[in-house]
Amino acid sequence: MNVTRRSVLLGSAAVMATMxxxxxxxxxxxxxxxxxxxxxxxxxxxxxxxxxxxxxxxDIINNRHDLDLPLAKSAGLPGLxxxxxxxxxxxxxxxxxxxxxxxxxxxxxxxxxxxxGTYYSSVAVTVSQTAERYGLPYMSADNSxxxxxxxxxxxxxxxxxxxxxxxxGMFDFYDWMRKKGxxxxxxxxxxxxxxxxxxxxxAQLKFASERxxxxxxxxxxxxxxxxxxxxxxxxxxxxxxVLMPSxxxxxxxxxxxxxxxxxxxxxxxxxxxxxxSDKALFDAVGPQIQGLITRGxxxxxxxxxxxxxxxxxxxxKARAGKDLNDNTSRELMALIILADAIDRAKSTDGEAIRxxxxxxxxxxxxxxxxxxxxxxxxxxxxxxxxxxxxxYVKDKLVTIFPPQAAIAAPIWPMGA
Amino acid sequence: MSETLLELRxxxxxxxxxxxxxxxxxxxxxxxxxxxxxxxxxxxxxxxxLIAGALLPxxxxxxxxxxxxxALPAPARCARGIARTFQVVRSFDSMSxxxxxxxxxxxxxxxxxxxxxxxxxxxxxxxxxxxxERPAGELTMADKRRLEVAREPRLLLLDEVMTGLTPxxxxxxxxxxxxxxxxxxxxxxxxxxxEIVMPLVDRAIVLDLGRVLASGRPDALVRDPAVIGAYLGxxxxxxxxxxxxx
Amino acid sequence: MxxxxxxxxxxxxxxGSAPVGGSAFRRxxxxxxxxxxxxxLAAAALPLGIDSVYVENILVLTLMxxxxxxxxxxxxxxxxxxxxxxxxxxxxxxxxxxxxxxxFGIPPWFGFVAGGILAALVALALGYPCFRLKGHYYxxxxxxxxxxxxxxxxxxxxxxxxxxxxxxxxxxSWLAFQFGRSKIPYFYFVLALAAVTWLATWLIEDxxxxxxxxxxxxxPDAAESLGVVVFRSKMAAAALSAxxxxxxxxxxxxxxxxxxxxxxxxxxxxxxxxxxxxxGGIGTLWGPALGAAIIVPLSELTRSYIGGSGKGTDLIVYGxxxxxxxxxxxxxxxxxLRRRPxxxxx
Amino acid sequence: xxxxSSIAQIMVSGLLTGLIYALVAVGLxxxxxxxxxxxxxxxxxxxxxxxxxxxxxxxxxxxxxVAVPIVMAALFVFGAAVYLGIVSYAMRARVNSGMVQxxxxxxxxxxxxxxxxxxxxxxxRSIAHSWxxxxxxxxxxIYVPAPQLVGALISIAAFFALWLLITRTDFGKAIEAxxxxxxxxxxxxxxxxxxxxxxxGLGAMLVGLAGAILASFYYIYPNVGGPFALIAYxxxxxxxxxxxxxxxxxxxxxxxxxALTAVILPSDLKEVGVYAVYLAxxxxxxxxxxxxI
Lengths: 416, 246, 346, 293
Hints:
- The complex is a heterotetramer of chains A (416), B (246), C (346) and D (293).
- Chain A is an alpha/beta fold and 416 residues long.
- Chain A is built from twelve helices and 14 strands.
- In chain A, the strands form four sheets. In chain A, strands 2-1-3-4-5 form a five-stranded parallel β-sheet, sandwiched between helices. A four-stranded mixed β-sheet of chain A has the order 9-10-13-14, with helices on one face.
- In chain A, strand 13 and strand 14 (396-401) form a beta hairpin.
- The longest helix of chain A is centred in the first third of the chain and has 24 residues, at 3-26.
- In chain B, strands 6-7-8-3-9-10 form a six-stranded mixed β-sheet, sandwiched between helices. In chain B, strands 2-1-4-5 form a four-stranded antiparallel β-sheet, with helices on one face.
- The longest helix of chain B has 16 residues, at 167-182.
- Chain B is globular and about 50 Å long.
- By secondary structure, chain C is mainly alpha-helical.
- Chain C has a single domain, classed as Orthogonal Bundle (ABC transporter involved in vitamin B12 uptake, BtuC).
- Chain C has 16 helices and two strands.
- Chain C has a two-stranded antiparallel sheet.
- In chain C, helix 4 (53-78) runs parallel beside helix 8 (184-205).
- Chain C is globular.
- The termini of chain C are close together.
- Classes of the chains: A alpha/beta (416), B alpha/beta (246), C mainly alpha (346), D mainly alpha (293).
- At the A-C interface, helix 1, helix 2, strand 2, helix 3 and helix 4 of A face helix 3, helix 4, strand 2 and helix 14 of C.
């Protein structure tokens, strides 16, 4: 009598929970959005930070703020009679199956009208598929895998850049530096064996061969290895003009420490953000990476050009105790863009929201990002989300590329 | 159909240099009850393992019911009717007493239901029926010994089954051995305690330094100076006549 | 079987009738079968009462883990060879099914069987060297073999490598094994799978293999002396166990419609397969199902309703519960079911 | 493309890493040898030790090296407590005690991770400044990082001390006796339970030492134990469960094999090299290199 009865009990329990939430969702003045991040497991910190970012965005959406951002000046969603947005968080633990299960729970029980997430690209695959099946939008806030938008989904949208765009930005930078007479010929790739790492290195290999850079080392390592000495020794032996790591915080910290231990001082590091935009990494190894360059979707010094940046960062810092970074800024902005679409759709119907997203056209100046504008192409990708390159100088990240966004000239080589 | 059940010819097993059993030859008739005695390190246990198939001989042949089983592994010999007990009592403690016996019975009866019936019979015989459903783990030492002999082979090898038993238990053990023997099962038993073996067996084989030192009726053997010598530990060279098996 | 150790009382009750223990035995077998049939029917009726996709998802996972753990139980619970590398067979099933479908358009139904057979063959090939290892040496070997396999798949571009493989959306049909939003068909398939693994175990319990495997588990040497062919016993158990595990793996791939090495081949998964059997009663007929019925919904609900906090509360509850159950009921919760006198008789 | 010096560098690094692996693993091996129990929370013990070191560095500004004795003491108490509070009950199980031990410690592992995340947040910590820090000595072209070097030396010293403890002291004799025949020692008046508790304390203490050393050059977060634990299990099995010397030898082998595989094969296959060596060894020596049990 085991399987069934138990499940029935639990089942009914869950169903009751459903009822409860149904009642809440039924209240007209509320719009629920499902937020999926890893809140436990190896990347739990990302989830925790993402929650702060989402709450900051929620504050901006639901309350009046004198900021030049969508929905900032109004309280709630005017298009829906000032309805407030409610966020329902779900933990996917980095497991695609759990991600899908949570997505289904959010849709069918919490009655959310859109999903946003998920940090892990693998989870984004199942979540975006689920959203497609239920006909409501999935806003990819911080997935950077280009393969995602190529699933041919109608309800997939990504306002931020993906790894190919990021990598392209890096190579544009190299070309630009070359024109200015800097010698950049050889590259060393260092990437983990995950979707993120593989996508990133594939793009970099592609651009390198297209634009005539020699990849002298392409090192793929197992994420969270206890030791990276062998890998670093090879990087050192290769001694390329630029070291291009695609790593998360843990391996990033270990990489930098190991380089120092083995006396490897690369001429320049151009990192695929991730770990290299995480405060924890700079706290740990800041001194060793003065002059490091990382791609970014965001930079604080953008405040000079876009006043809302400073204010929003203040709102975030009040909650998280740290500045916005590459991930949190994307998570925050994506939520605002999604809410804006819901507002313009004047409805919580998935198809209506999708249409509104397709119609989205927000000038870059009305975002906190260095983007030209927000406009989604047929694949749901915002091709105008041009990335910036930031350099870590005197414990701060300053924008050095592209020129229109730059506020300082790059220091090259990094030691100089 | 030969009148010898088990026949060893020049069976030798070397471990590295030294021979644990050295050119041992003897034979057992069906239903015969034979004691295998000798001082420690005489090679009794090795010989047991060789007959049971836990070890393979370096030289010599072992025939069972006329068939050459020298190369057969333990399970195959078991299937042919050679059963052995262990010095350290063994049982499947997570299984019931009945199931323990069923495992053995399955060696000869393929069908589980038939095996269970056979097992019930055997348990009646060894007087464990009342504990049939008990986990074997809960049995007393004496009962575990009974459990070990609870099978119906053609030849039963008993390895010091009396050790660790109280006198009264031992007496019941002896009765059981007699009873088994009455069923026409041949028994080869290793025992240290002379007082137990000698009155019990038809014939005893004395091993010393891996060789058959003497063999014959118990009453004769106990008077054999070579045997006495061996037990007193006066190591004479085995020039002392080595009697051929029966 | 373990549970009998827990409460000998009912055993006494019937052992008076020891000679006819055989018939008591048959009575118990019949009882088990009837109970299972009843449960199956009750379970089959469940979807009628449930309209929540989320709950359906939990039910599917519960049944899947019941089936998985029952398969694991065959090798590890009955035959006593503790494998913590069963994710390997799960992965083989998942990848075989998916690759056959995606690369060659072969329907999943064939993939399930093919994956199962492949896994069984792999189990035999690995068992040949590994079954010479004893205890923890064997267990560690199973772990590292599974890890090696997962790292190799991670480096196998044709199989999607780190990207994993996504099963393209197809028109809902039983042949394609896709059903749009509905989970009910998956539910019935996995229910059937769980029933089959249960039935297999039930049949094994009263078969030569059943007795032999448990003998091997308790004392291989003694078993050998009683005519049990230990090595072949282990191989048989491994092959059967791997087959069912792989079928479940194939199902998982179809159910989730996306697989990558991390989600179908990691060590955690191997442990999660073993867990229900351990909680419910390792080497018992009902243990795995019972354990799954408790632990799977628990882990799902804790994650869904307290996991969003990011504080790891769900882990605390889950870990503590596993610890407590294992310590309080080493012989497994199934032993709690064993109250009917007849039930205790082998 | 790899020069002789970089090969030499890899060998040196591999050796140092290996000695630290050995230190991480020996506690596991000791406990197993004593009572045939594999602690599946070993990695979490390491995690706690690292957090303890981090806490002392942050709170009391103690250098990891200074913190070592404190952390070791703390872990000793913790280990003994885990035995008395959990493992001793797990061992009472009459049936499938093996699995009960594995999964009670597995549950403990998850619980500890959860607690770490709850109280310490999942953030990645690391000790920014320490004496050893990222100091490093250059012997010609070969660099020897101070933390690993000191760690390796401490590891060797620890093994020597352990050897003395086991062979020269009453406690060691008690341990030996207990592993020989746990019930017999009861007759000569040694409390089995006490020896086991001390054994767990000692095992955990060694993990504490390893953790304190690692903390000085490694990042710290709730799941940090995982990768080390897996390596520790393989190391212990490779050396032979229960063999202290085996753990040392195996640790070094694992370190070297890992480093070399990383340059011969694509470096994300380096674990494969280690695992393959384990399989190869146990196929010929089913009890590991120096295993007795």
